[in-house]
Amino acid sequence: MTLATINPATGATEVLVEPHAPDEVFSRIDEAAAAARELQSTTFDQRARWMHAAADILTDQAEGLGELITVEMGKPIHQSIAEVHKSAKVMRYYADHAETFLADSPLEDPGVVGASRAWTRYEPLGVVLAVMPWNYPIWQVIRFAAPALMAGNSGLLKHASNVPQAALFLDTLFERAGFPVGSFRALLIGGAEVAGVLADPRVKAVTLTGSEAAGRSVASIAGDHIKKSVLELGGSDPFIVMPSADITTAAATAVRARINNNGQSCIAGKRFIVHSKVYDEFAAAFAEQMSALVIGDPLDPATEVGPLATEAGRNSLVELVDDAVHKGAEVLAGGFAPDREGFFYAPTILAGLNDSMRVVQEETFGPVASLYRAEDAEAALRIANQTSFGLSSSVWTSDPEEQAWFLQGLDAGAVFINGMTISYQELPFGGVKRSGYGRELAAAGIREFCNLKAVWAA
User: Fold this and answer.
1) Is residue 232 flagged as an active site residue?
2) Catalytic residue (one of 175, 232, 304, 448)
3) Spatial distance between the Cα atoms of 2 and 11, rounded to a whole number of angstroms
4) What CATH number should be reported for the domain whose range is 3-233+435-457?
5) Taking the domain 237-425, which CATH number applies?
6) Residue 209, beta-bridge partner list
7) For a tag on the chain, would you pick the N or C end, based on fewer CB atoms within 10 A?
8) Cβ atoms < 10 Å from Cβ of 248
9) Residue 451 in contact with residue 125, Cβ under 8 Å?
């Protein structure tokens, strides 16, 4: 299977990349295993110097790398460049904090366990496989790679097949910065070959960001081989607006939450649940602003919404919207694919939804918002929790008791109060229910792929 960069703004094939043959895959796993052994004997200080150097490479090449991202998956150029800078920032964060996060923790009174000394320590696992998506082709990889390498692990990357140039860039990044040969290697393979890589005894763990189906498959294989796995899967995040909220700010933020990355973000607000007292005001502002967005060439700085990354993704979105409209949904904005080349879809708002519609339970991976009317807080919470996903959530209310009530009741890995969900390096990131398990970022993220070893000494 030849890998290809297909420009989503035009539909044209830009680059063809040949996949790795089985012997090359074996060799790259071998390199990663050797690098893991070498990294375990290096110091945090040495790894931090290399990581800072890798971050400098990203910063220096931000504009060119941003253009590559946009050509491969279609996000507006200013967002692509921002993704590169955010990736460099998280690299510096782990370079500066890894040693503290993984420091030995002594038992204050070792005598209670009959020891003269007792403590816990974190040790790297070895080679960790990352199966990564196309929607943030640099950030998703780096937020795994930075903590994994700083902990002393090596990494293997199976990237999405439509971003092969991003994979090739990442394949050499860490080695260019001084890390041992093989510390991070891309595997240009198809999805069917992941099972064989994960089964390899040299690979000790796996992390996946992607669809629920992909997560179920990878988790099953990891379970068969008793290997650690971390999954960040889909999301259908609720964005709840109550009467005490600042409706003007909430509506403007809702637009940004829904169309960021052309709507292709797991943690984007997707279901907008608005109290009936402010529903009409919010809906009018939301629809007006969504309809006014500039759709166009993602390389043009004036563009606010670019194409979806793939033709299949755009077609899936068309099917979801058509299904809802056929079953009675009201279209407040958009609802169509523009008549132009590329994989574009107009920013859309659907209202009047019912449980027979696929969009109520499935993730809309594109600039389509579902709008719900809730009669009270209990109804809003029920709608928010009715899907099988539980990644993040956003609640807009100035009432402290209401804030605490939603915080307690929402089934999600995160709750943002009066703000839009964003991943921060200082906060753990991950979901519950069918949005996955495990955490990335913060201290929790670097500890996921470490052995927490207890030490007892007489």
Assistant:
1) yes
2) 232
3) 17
4) 3.40.605.10
5) 3.40.309.10
6) 232
7) C
8) 11
9) yes
State the average pLDDT for the chain. Answer: 98
| pLDDT single digits (tens) 1-25 | 799 999 999 999 999 999 999 999 9
Residue-level pLDDT at 1: 77
Of 75, 177, 57, which Cα lies nearest the Cα of 136?
75
Contact call for residues 159 and 166 (beta carbons, < 8 A): yes
> What is the DSSP pairing of strand 330-333 with strand 432-433?
unpaired
Q: Which two tokens stand for residue 230?
A: 């971390």
Q: Do domains 3-233+435-457 and 237-425 have the same CATH topology?
A: no
Is residue 131 a contact partner of residue 158, using CB atoms and an 8 Å limit?
yes
Nearest to 434 by CA among 356, 342, 362: 362
Please give the single-letter amino acid code of residue 88.
A
Burial class of residue 144 (count of CB atoms within 10 Å of its CB; 0-12, 13-18, 19+)? buried
- Please write down the long-range contacts of 42-46, taking CB distance under 8 Å and 24 or more positions apart: 42/152, 44/98, 44/99, 44/102, 44/150, 45/99
Asked if 266 is an active-site residue, the reply is yes
Per the residue annotation, which of 31, 175, 266, 304 is the catalytic one? 266
Query: Is residue 176 classed as helix, strand or coil in its secondary structure?
Result: helix
What whole-number distance in Å separates Cα of residue 443 and Cα of residue 425? 9
Tell me how far apart the alpha carbons of residues 269 and 271 are, in angstroms, rounded to a whole number.
6
Non-local (6+) Cβ contacts of 217 within 8 A are 194, 195
**HEC profile for 179-213?**
CCCCCEEECCCCHHHHHHHHHCCCEEEEEEECCHH
**pLDDT confidence tier of residue 196, bands split at 50, 70 and 90:** very high
- Kindly tell me the sign of the dihedral angle through the C-alpha atoms of 441, 446, 451, 455: negative
- Return the closest-CA partner of residue 194 out of 180, 181, 208: 208
For range 257-277, the mean pLDDT: 97
Q: Convert the pLDDT of each residue in 286-313 to its tens digit.
A: 999 999 999 999 999 999 999 999 999 9
Q: Which long-range contacts (CB under 8 A, 24 or more apart) does 396-399 make?
A: 396/239, 396/240, 396/241, 396/242, 396/245, 396/246, 396/250, 397/240, 397/242, 397/244, 397/245, 398/244, 398/245, 398/246, 399/242, 399/244
| pLDDT (0 to 100) of residue 120 | 98
255 phi/psi in degrees, rounded to 5: -65, -50
Answer whether residue 225 shows pLDDT above 90.
yes
Distance CA 234, CA 430 (A): 10
Q: Tell me the domain boundaries of the chain.
A: 3-233+435-457, 237-425
